[in-house]
Amino acid sequence: MINHATVSALLKHTSPGVGVMLCASALGVAAPNPALGQEIVVNGTDNYDELFTDTIASREHAIDYDTAKRRGATTVDDQDRSFAQPDGLHVGQSFVYPSLGVTSTYDDNIFRSSNNKEGDLRTVFTPSVNVRSDMPRHLLDLSLSGRIVTFLENSDQNYNDYAASLRGALHFDHAHTISASLITTLQHEERGNLTAPLDAAEPVPVFHHRASAGITRDVGRLYGTLSGRVEQWDYQDVKAQNGSKIDQDHRDLNAFGGRLKVGYRISPGFELLASTSANRLENHGTGPLDVDGNSYDALIGVGLQTSPLLKFQLMGGVGVRDFDASNRDSQSTSVFSGNVTWLPTRRMTFRGQVARQISDTVDANSDTYIETSVGAEMDYEIYHNIIGRAGLSFSNSEFKNQIREDDTISASLGVEYLYSKNVHFTAGYQHVRRDSTDANFDSTNNRFTVGAKIQF
Fold it and tell me: What is the pTM assigned to this prediction?
């Protein structure tokens, strides 16, 4: 499946940290900054999370949060590990961070098949370059990354991904920030993925492009971001197992829309949150495969911090998909998003998340689906440069135009060794099981991974 969260995951490979390489399937939840205001998460993911949404005023609010961190109320990932962060190359008013990662994974079921399971060793190279500006009122960041995937025995499944993003922001006064972002990616939908064609013989290439812009006001009690986006998914034809070509044009999707997110700080640690969005979806399908239409979402909720050690957010509302085609019923369902961050000890961080959303992407049968998920993740500082991680998640995917419903369970364990500023190592294990009302989509996977990253 190619969606907003997938793009964000790929772009995270370009950061100096290596946590995303450890257990990619573990369901992580970003801890909201109580001083900056809650980062409103909608439908489990923020569609415009690549935009800069802080202001000069919000940075000043962060002083209280930084003080709390110095007293020990900080997550494992937020603790000072400057000893393991690259220095970067100082060029003018920017820093350049090149890196190269490699992971090797043995997967006992690379095609996620219920029959004829086949194991293979997958090796992934992730070169990247980040260019980050160092200016007080202007931000301009460029990220270029690749993902080279090779299989030891099934070389016909090899593919190359790329991602490029350009983000900028202007703090034009104390309380306001204008930001914009351009993202382009080539990704591949592997055989056996949730939305992939069942008879595909190789990964499906998907071009994904997004342009977004927004304005943020954050000063005093009331804050918010108004943003808009233009987005496109272009699915390429793929070879079928019988040697023919599978036409994927009916899955192509264009999206245009906007979102308003607001928050109101009632008191320290207690905020009201709201988000609403409207989008126009244009699809190249015909007849029963046409998903042209409009989508709407509206959620309200609260963000609470009962102490520096416990904070959570809960939002709920309704999501609507109104299709143009007379032979396709509109969809309306409850949507919600919740997350919690708990610091039981200085060395341990627990995160939990629950979400329900209507997917805007299109599966091989041109069907939208409703996904409900719940997950938990625990980080533990074994030593100052050794971090252990464990994750557990469950998701239910309900396809509305098919007699199909999938349940997926994922569990993972991993360890990250920060050897030096320039070299990190990772190792992990993941178990994934998918049970579907369509037996063709049942699968069980066990994956064992080791990796290393060189960064400067």
Answer: 0.84
Which residues, in sequence order, are bridge partners of residue 179? 169, 214
Minimal CA–CA distance to 270: which of 296, 303, 222?
A: 303
Q: Evaluate whether 389 touches 22 at the Cβ level (below 8 Å).
A: yes
Q: What does the alpha-carbon distance between residue 152 and residue 372 come to, in Å, rounded to a whole number?
A: 35
Q: How far apart are CA 55 and CA 70, in angstroms?
A: 23
The total number of residues shown for the chain amounts to: 456
CA distance between the termini of the chain = 32
The answer to whether 302 touches 324, Cβ cutoff 8 Å, is no
Q: What is the DSSP string of 403-420?
A: TEEEEEEEEEEEEEEE-S
Neighbours of 145 (CB within 10 A): 23
- Among 123, 105, 3, 45, smallest CA distance to 429 is for 105
Residue burial 7-36, b: 16+ Cβ < 10 Å; e: rest: bbebbbbbbbbbbbbbbbbbbbbebbbbbb
Structure-block tokens of residue 42: 């909608």
Tokens of 66: 């930084």
What is the rounded CA–CA span in Å between residue 320 and residue 335? Answer: 9
Q: Mind listing the pLDDT tens digit of every residue in the chain (456 residues)?
A: 334 333 333 333 333 333 333 333 332 323 223 233 344 444 333 444 578 888 888 877 766 655 656 566 788 998 888 899 999 998 888 999 999 999 999 999 999 988 878 999 999 999 999 999 878 788 999 999 999 999 999 999 999 999 999 999 999 898 999 999 999 999 999 998 888 898 999 999 999 999 999 999 998 899 999 999 999 999 999 999 999 999 998 899 999 999 999 999 998 789 999 999 999 999 877 666 788 899 999 999 999 988 888 999 999 999 998 988 887 788 889 999 999 999 999 899 999 999 999 887 677 776 678 999 999 999 999 999 999 999 999 999 998 777 889 999 999 999 999 999 999 999 999 999 999 998 888 999 999 999 999 999
